[in-house]
From TrEMBL:
The chain crosses the membrane at residues 20-40, 60-85, 106-129, 141-162, 174-193, 251-269. The lineage of its organism: Bacteria, Bacillati, Bacillota, Bacilli, Bacillales. GO terms for cellular component: ATP-binding cassette (ABC) transporter complex. PANTHER family: NODULATION PROTEIN J. This is Transport permease protein. It comes from Salibacterium qingdaonense.
Length: 274
């Protein structure tokens, strides 16, 4: 536990001291918030109000905001794992690998550090809520934070596994850029994904961001209070094999996903040390 805490503490302190990184990672999520929240809100709200009688008061930006927060978690979690390659270049990772600290502790410490950093930035996105003309119950915002951290852990494990195999920052950034956008667009973060082609629906269902976004929307928006027609139109009824997926099942998927990828990263660390 001391090894895990030391690695976690180092990554968090590095993040807090890097103000450019602290504010720079907001640029892409805010850009998407302006484009989708501001540009498409009128179109989506008009479409809902025309097709669903109960949709007169529907706010599209309220639907898309949890997805933007999840996008922040995704980008920060995955890109935080870039520090593994940087630590390897500066020799810090080699010192850790030859130390008595177990490979599992190294992987878990790195994952928790990246997850904490991502969760901090995700929570900071809530500061934008008063300026967007929307509101969420304070209790819902507090309740969603543990789920945000769980999603960040799942996404950090993706970056951890990629970084454990690569030796250059350029290669890491290239692969991550190829993964980030499809994971965002095929998650329901920005638009419904309930009418995807068959092969694309498979990608949606194995995407951890899909379940994280769905949980965040269920907690923050209280989707059960919406009219069934609105939930169907906005893809808020996530199903698998014809049955609705519960929050508990989504949590179990993300825990299992994280565990498998951390174990694979641990094996990669052992190979690296060998």
């Amino acid at each position: 536990m001391e090894g895990i805490f030391a690695i976690w503490q180092r990554d968090v302190i590095k993040f807090l001291r890097d103000r450019a990184r602290l504010f720079g990672s907001f640029s892409m999520p805010i850009l998407f918030l302006l484009i989708f929240g501001g540009g498409l809100s009128g179109t989506m709200e008009g479409l809902i109000s025309e097709t669903v009688p109960e949709g007169a008061d529907f706010q599209y930006i309220q639907f898309v905001f949890p997805g933007i927060v999840a996008m922040t978690l995704l980008m920060t979690s995955v890109f935080s794992s870039l520090s593994i390659i940087e630590d390897r270049d500066f020799g810090y990772m080699k010192e850790i690998l030859v130390s008595p600290v177990s490979r599992v502790s190294i992987a878990v410490g790195k994952m928790l550090g990246a997850s904490t950093v991502a969760c901090i930035q995700g929570v900071m996105m809530f500061l934008l809520i008063p300026f967007l003309g929307i509101s969420y119950p304070l209790a819902s915002i507090i309740q969603v934070i543990p789920f945000m951290f769980l999603l960040a852990c799942a996404l950090s494990s993706v970056g951890l596994l990629i970084a454990s195999f690569l030796k250059s920052t350029q290669g890491f950034q290239l692969i991550v850029q190829l993964l980030v956008m499809p994971m965002v667009f095929l998650s329901g973060a920005l638009f419904p994904v309930n009418n995807m082609p068959g092969w694309m629906d498979i990608v949606v269902k194995i995407n951890p961001v899909t379940y994280g976004v769905d949980i965040m929307k269920k907690v923050m928006i209280d989707t059960q209070s919406l009219a069934p027609a609105i939930r169907e139109a906005m893809g808020l009824n996530l199903t698998l094999f014809g049955r609705s997926i519960t929050v508990a099942e989504e949590v179990l998927f993300m825990i299992g996903f994280t565990t498998i990828l951390v174990l694979l990263a641990t094996l990669s660390f052992r190979r690296t040390n060998a």
